TrEMBL record:
Gene3D superfamilies (alphabetical): SUI1-like domain (3.30.780.10)
A Pfam family hit: Img2
Name of the molecule in the record: Large ribosomal subunit protein mL49
Organism in which the protein naturally occurs: Arctia plantaginis
BP term (GO), one: translation
Entry coiled-coil feature ranges: none
């Protein structure tokens, strides 16, 4: 407490004779100073929103601006905006990314894997339990899901030389395969024409 008073005394010595600048803060002078009328608005920090005063309406707008419907600079902004719909793919012999388009013969099969809106196959890998559990998932299946499950099991058994467990969710239209078999499943889907 003594150090606080000493620091306040040293601070008060700066304002000796300036009674209007020290408001009720002159402990060492022994006199409570009366404030002079102040014309300037002092900023005050409030402890929370509820105790702060209402904001008065600003008389004049701070910034001047004009509204333009389609400025010439907008063409540069439009290039950066994402597409509302993904454009159709232009057919080519090969694509630099290695992407393979779907073929018409896939529509004649009793089951179908439609592409996503980004023209990709709906085959994903879900990793859980800090990387200990890996499940390959085929989503958005249309048609005979049980026949598709049998064909996947047969194909993965030939590739891995062992039995592979699967789980069919008929209502949600997806199949889960135990293990990381995403590359094999994508390869199988391309051979079928999906």
């Amino acid at each position: 407490m003594a150090t606080v008073l000493r620091s306040q005394c040293a601070f008060a010595r700066l304002f000796v004779g300036k009674t209007g600048q020290i408001l009720n803060n002159a402990i060492d002078l022994g006199v409570k100073l009366a404030p002079e009328p102040q014309s300037a608005l002092l900023s005050k920090n409030y402890s929370n929103y509820a105790h702060s005063p209402f904001v008065t309406k600003i008389k004049k707008e701070q910034y001047e601006y004009e509204i333009v419907k389609k400025p010439p600079e907008w063409t540069y902004v439009e290039r950066l905006l994402p597409f509302n719909t993904i454009p159709a793919v232009t057919p080519k012999e090969t694509y630099p990314s290695g992407w393979i388009p779907p073929r018409e013969e896939a529509k004649n099969l009793p089951f179908f894997l439609p592409r996503t809106k980004f023209h990709d196959l709906p085959i994903y890998l879900h990793v859980t339990y800090r990387g200990m559990r890996k499940i390959s998932k085929i989503k958005r299946i249309e048609g005979d899901i049980w026949l598709l499950n049998d064909e996947i099991k047969k194909y993965l058994k030939e590739k891995n030389k062992r039995y592979v467990e699967t789980r069919v969710q008929e209502v949600a239209r997806f199949i889960e395969v135990k293990g990381d078999h995403v590359n094999y499943l994508i390869e199988w889907a391309h051979t079928k024409g999906f």
